[in-house]
Every structure is written in structure tokens, then in C-alpha cells.
Recover the amino acids of this structure.
């Protein structure tokens, strides 16, 4: 078999990213368009197919040279059937993505949960290069989790492997989208950081955050760096809780590496230092000795790169 | 290669069990002798070697027919070097078990953590038959944990994979042997059940347990079954906590099966029913859907059988 030329697809609730990726992990061409999920699955699948053909063409690849397509999708998948069981973000249920894309593109298609795909991307050519056992989390609207074991995505029994965002930390806590209360993501996601800060501000606490118009998690970290007490307290609670949750996962998984992704992961020491302090307080000493923490390196490209890698592994 | 005839060794802090095991998982001959760990590592290793030759002889096997030896050892191991880093139960540090047994027995030797070995035994011919992803815990003096992924023992980065006993549940809780406070095993081990019951009795609570001379975890379950309020409360706290802890592990691992071993696992419905109720309250619905709970089946033989299997896998 000649060099692999694959198309990596990162299907999100807001945008679709599609890239032509070569075997070395180089993105030759990338496109991004809005998902417009409310227009229905057929519309979205047509758009993806069109984007795939477009990036291949712009990369100067004949369609016959494309060896495969990988796609990361937000939601619960049936891997054997190549089917989305349910994607709350897209409003999809029981969509045979592999079959639908296959029909449109006549190329082997592999699908995977988006958090797993991002983890695979980081393991391949990002923060996880050279490591076998990796726990990757993404701090965003929720807390995504992907698990790499022996260099491969770990699915578990039915595709839920690595779903650390929904471990319950505080049974009396805020209601989570999953139906439970106090899941990790209700405390440590970017959304939760903003919600917690707003609550403190609404309670009338004095803070430089009062002046920020449309508050983001990044603002909270920025103001904490400048010493604002409310921002420091919100960040403190977030890092203490996330460090604790990662200690639970690490005592069980004994990973070599924990990769933290999402916008918040760019906050640097103000995130990573207290996070590791909390982690090391709760994790077994030998587990601490074995693990490194690293920010994700691939940013918004983790999805398309991981999806491309998925296709390469499937055809190797 | 002909039929495998292996020796499985289960080295415990109190007793050594050694068995001649055939390829079907049948124990042909088994021996048990006290460990007498205070007499030193050389004494214990000599005793193991002697027991291995004895069971082979009693099984009617010529020593040349023995294809390998597997050993389960309580403690932290360096698998690549075949070395015990540290075994608090045995009082051993830096003992090259593989080399030492090899020299005494001239047969290939594989060593493994005892909880992992028990998990492998159950996966092979016990409660876990036919399952790929298994979390096995043993409720005893502590809470041992072993993880089977894709049918193989999962070690993690440095042999700590599956150490669920030391996830911190209550940072203000009782001091654990590991140095932390409120580890799962300080709340849900057999030792902890007895400690909690005794505390309630010492505080003067009325209970049928007051009449029991040398209280065991089994007594607590027996009296709970008869409706004793203190026993019910202790069992309730234990099952609520263990169910919660298993939900954390299961959301991350998405196992097909959770095997519960140790003496307490024979308690039946009074353990398993509230345990599953607690688990399903906290775990994701899809994770619950995929997992079954089962008591371990191999009892005291899990160790020698798992150790035998370990040797078979190593030579296959």
C-alpha cells in the first residue's frame, strides 16, 4: 500500500472541520463551515461529503488517492454498526454515519467519539507522543474524556470509556445534563467556572470581574492571575476539585500522562500548579511518581488530526 | 508445544499456597503452608521451591514436564525486572523473585501483583469467563483491585492499575496505611466494617452485636440480615460508599463486569442489592446498562489459578 492520504472530519455542534492529512500528520488543507444541525442529518452529511471532496481537490489529491476517512462525532456511538446512537449536541438519534458517508464518498469510513479522537490526535503527534497510557480531558462546555491504552483508543464495554466528566463529586451539587447532580463537569468545566463566578458576583461580592461584560472562563483565570479574590477562590475550587477527580482516575488507571485540553488549558501555571498540588495530595505516591501533566498541543486541530489517525490505524 | 503443566503460587502474608494446574484449569494437587515471613526472604523462597517440587511430584509430573511457574505476590512489583519493589505484608524490599525462583527451580517464572492474579483467575475460569473488560475487587483486610482489559491484566505505567482501594472518598476520614485519610478501604474493607461496628457499640448503641465475642464482618452482615439496626446502618454505609466508588471507576472504565471477591462477597443479596442501588444512582445510565455485578467464584483458589494462567499466557 502506498502513502496514506486521509480526510479527517471533526463534526461539532457548531462547526464542521475537515482536513486533508498526510501520513506524517501534516494538515495539507483544512476547511471549516457551520454545522447548521437544525437543517437535519442529511443536510449535514451532504455538507461533510462536499467539504471532503473540496479539501482533497485543494490538496491536489485525486479522489482515488484518498485511502480513508475518519470522523470524530459528539455523542454515543455503536462502533460495530458505525452508528450514532444519540448525539444531544446534534439532535441526532440512530444515524448510520458510516453507511451514509460511505454511500456519498465511496471510501472506507471510521467513526469515533470526538473526545476519544482528540485524545488519539494528542497521542499521535501532540502532547502524548511516545506514551502508551494516556488520560486526556478537554475542559470546555463540559469535561470530555478520552482514554488511550497501549496506544489505542479504549472504548470499554459500550463506548463510554474515559467519561470522567460524569463522575459524581457532589451529590448535592448542581444538576447536570446527564440527569445526575454534582458531576465533575458541573464544577470544573469552562461553563461551570463562569457560573460559579457569576453567582459570587450576583451575591454582591466585590471583584474586578464585576466590570467584565460577557464573562468567560478565561477572564476568571486572567483576573485570578492579577490577584482578584473572587476569581482566585473560583479557580481554587475548580483546581482542587479537578485535581481530586484526576487522582481518582489515576489511582485506577495509573496513566503515564494526563493531557489537559480546551481553551482553559492555556491558562498556564495558574491552572497547572494548584491542579497538581491537589492531585498529589490525593493520589498514591507511586501513581504520582509515574505520571506527568501536560497541556494539549494540537488545539483546534486535535479533532481532524485524531480522526485522520483513526483512519490510518483502521487501514493498517 | 505439548500440554501445559504449570505451578501456580499464591504468596500471602500468612500462608503460601502452591498448586499444580493443568491447561483446563483443573487443580491437580494443592499444598498450603505458613509463610513465616519474619524468617526472611531466602527461607520463604526455599519453602516455595520445595512446595513447587512437592506438588509436581504428588501430581505425578516429572519436573521436566513443568512448563512454567506463575506467582502472585502482595506488593509493588517491577515487572520488567521481575522484582518486588516493596511488600509491606512480607516486609520485603528489592527482592528479585523471578531470578531467585529461577535459580532454585530452573523453570520460567512470571510474577504479578496478587490482586491482579486473582482477577486473572476469575477472568479465566471464574465469574469473568467470556468477558473482555473486568474490574475485580477483593474485600478483605483492605480493598484489592485488579483490572482486566481485553482479557489481559492491565498494569498501567508502573503496576498500580486498578488500585481502587486507595481512592480518597473522605479527606477527613480515618487514616489509611498508605498515609492518606479516608481511602475507600478505610470505609469498606472487612476491617473497616468491624471497626465501624465496634465504634457504634463502644458508644453504647443497643445492638445484638454486643453479644458477639470476636466480631467479624460476617457477623455484621448476619445481624443486618436479622434486622439489627446498628448492623444495618454499618452495612448501609459500606454499600452506599462502595457503590459510589465503583460508579467512579465504572464511568471511567466502562467495564462489562465487576467481580466482587473476599469473604464478604458471600453475603449475597444483603450486600449486592444495596451495592447496586447505590452504584446505579451515581453511574451513567449507559455505563449501568453495560455492566453486570457478580460474586467471585474461585474463592481461595483464585490466586493459584490466576498465577497458573499467568504462566500459560507468558509461554503462549
Amino acid at each position: 500500500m502506498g502513502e496514506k492520504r486521509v480526510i479527517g472530519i471533526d463534526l461539532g455542534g457548531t462547526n464542521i472541520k475537515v482536513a486533508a492529512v498526510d501520513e506524517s500528520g501534516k494538515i495539507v488543507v483544512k476547511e471549516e463551515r457551520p454545522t447548521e444541525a437544525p437543517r437535519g442529518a442529511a443536510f449535514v452529511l451532504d455538507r461533510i461529503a462536499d467539504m471532503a471532496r473540496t479539501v482533497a481537490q485543494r490538496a491536489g489529491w485525486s479522489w482515488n488517492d484518498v485511502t480513508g476517512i475518519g470522523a470524530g462525532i459528539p455523542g454515543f456511538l455503536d462502533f460495530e454498526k458505525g452508528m450514532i446512537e444519540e448525539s444531544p449536541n446534534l439532535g441526532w438519534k440512530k444515524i448510520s454515519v458510516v453507511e451514509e458517508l460511505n454511500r456519498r464518498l465511496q471510501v472506507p469510513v471510521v467513526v469515533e467519539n470526538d473526545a476519544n479522537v482528540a485524545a488519539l490526535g494528542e497521542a499521535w503527534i501532540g502532547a502524548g507522543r511516545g506514551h502508551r497510557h494516556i488520560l486526556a480531558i478537554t475542559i470546555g462546555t463540559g469535561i470530555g474524556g478520552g482514554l488511550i491504552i497501549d496506544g489505542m483508543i479504549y472504548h470499554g464495554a459500550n463506548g463510554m470509556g474515559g467519561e470522567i466528566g460524569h463522575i459524581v463529586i457532589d451529590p448535592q451539587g448542581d444538576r447536570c445534563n446527564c440527569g445526575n447532580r454534582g458531576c465533575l463537569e458541573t464544577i470544573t468545566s469552562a461553563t461551570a467556572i463562569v457560573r460559579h463566578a457569576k453567582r459570587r458576583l450576583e451575591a454582591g461580592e466585590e471583584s474586578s470581574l464585576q466590570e467584565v461584560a460577557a464573562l468567560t472562563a478565561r477572564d476568571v483565570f486572567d483576573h485570578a492571575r492579577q490577584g482578584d479574590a473572587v476569581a482566585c477562590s473560583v479557580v481554587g475550587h475548580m483546581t482542587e476539585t479537578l485535581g481530586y477527580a484526576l487522582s481518582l482516575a489515576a489511582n485506577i488507571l495509573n496513566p503515564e500522562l494526563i493531557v489537559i485540553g480546551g481553551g482553559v488549558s492555556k491558562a498556564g501555571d495558574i491552572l497547572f500548579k494548584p491542579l497538581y498540588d491537589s492531585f498529589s495530595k490525593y493520589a498514591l505516591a507511586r501513581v504520582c511518581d509515574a505520571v506527568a501533566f501536560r497541556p494539549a498541543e494540537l488545539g483546534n486541530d486535535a479533532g481532524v488530526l485524531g480522526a485522520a489517525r483513526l483512519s490510518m490505524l483502521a487501514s493498517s
In short: Chain B touches chain A at residues 76, 133, 145, 147, 149, 154-164, 166-168, 171, 178-180, 244, 247-249, 251-256, 282, 284-287, 289-291 (CB under 8 Å).
